[in-house]
Amino acid sequence: MSTTPRVAIITGASQGIGEALVDGYRKLGYAVVANSRTIAPSDDPMVHAVAGDIGRPGVGQQLVDAAVEQFGRVDTVVNNAGIFIAKPFTEYTDEDYDAVTGVNSRGFFELTRAAIRTMESQGDGGHVVTISTSLVDQANSQVPSALASLTKGGLNAATKALAIEYATRGIRANAVALGTIRTPMHAPETHDFLSALHPVGHMGDISDVVDGVLYLEHAKFVTGEILHVDGGQSAGH
Predict the structure, then answer these.
(1) Nearest Cα residue to 22 out of 105, 71, 78
(2) CATH label of the domain that carries residue 167
(3) CA dihedral sign, ordered 135, 184, 46, 53
(4) What is the pLDDT of residues 200-223, one digit of tens each?
């Protein structure tokens, strides 16, 4: 019987949701390759930190190579890194487009492609989880963000496509579509406005996101699912 632990690759892992996901997967006994543009080495020998911009060509493959070299395999990818820029559509710049599509789309594409290749070669399945947004399902005039919908909507569609393409090979693909989560990126003076965007009247907590991702990790009969962790946003207003 193999003693090699299951291995997760988590992007955007240096703070907030990503940092909490690293802790969540470690509590499941997973080894973790943790990535962000700037990430400090971990004191935990089962967490291998790899600095790099996931939106740049080659970084996705680098993370998979690091997982195989360090821990021997890849079981799960959590595409958590993302860029969100809320602007009126005509005010987006070419630089905004390049930044958002680079991380949200290209980062997902390169890392997931490399990871699935490795999962296939291992022959015992795997899991891809991608963080998305409820704005794809329920646009909001108070939060104009067409670039988020362009990229994350594509990721939702790709999640379903991958779930079907790889279903017979035991590789699952799911997404977690978020409302606004209480993280340090949201200044306290914005909390009342952001809370009011949700039918339940408050923002989500980082633990809500971790719970959703880990539910999907355990849910072996669930694939192609877009799990909404959004305080009811996707249902309406």
Answers:
(1) 78
(2) 3.40.50.720
(3) positive
(4) 989 899 999 999 999 999 999 999
